């Protein structure tokens, strides 16, 4: 259940099949309660793992696995982090892709933060 204390940050990984990362700035403190991805097309060869990090430290329970088998545009995956998920104003949340899959496919990212 979402409350008025939740806010949402968004970003886009241009190619989940190429190892790299994006950084999403944090405007207000809180705790990451959910991270979601929406795939822009079909990936192949291997699953793509997206890892959330704060200050270089992995968020516990913050790895989204986008399954290659049966993947398609519009597939949504999500995780609910359990620890190491507190952010403060001025932080940047890193979303890192391992680049294990193939096909140049974008993924939208939404992060839910509870104040």
Explain what this protein looks like in three dimensions.
The protein is mainly β and 115 residues long. It has one domain: Jelly Rolls (Sandwich). It is 0% helix and 53% strand. The protein contains no helices and nine strands. It has strands spanning 6-13, 20-25, 30-39, 48-54, 57-66, 76-79, 86-87, 92-97, 107-114. The strands form two sheets. Strands 1, 3, 6, 7 and 9 form a five-stranded antiparallel β-sheet that branches. It has a four-stranded antiparallel β-sheet with strand order 2-8-4-5, with no helix packed on it. β4 and β5 form a beta hairpin. The relative contact order is 0.42.
Describe what is shown at a glance:
By secondary structure, the protein is mostly beta strands. The protein has strands spanning about 5-15, 20-25, 30-40, 50-55, 55-65, 75-80, 85, 90-95, 105-115.
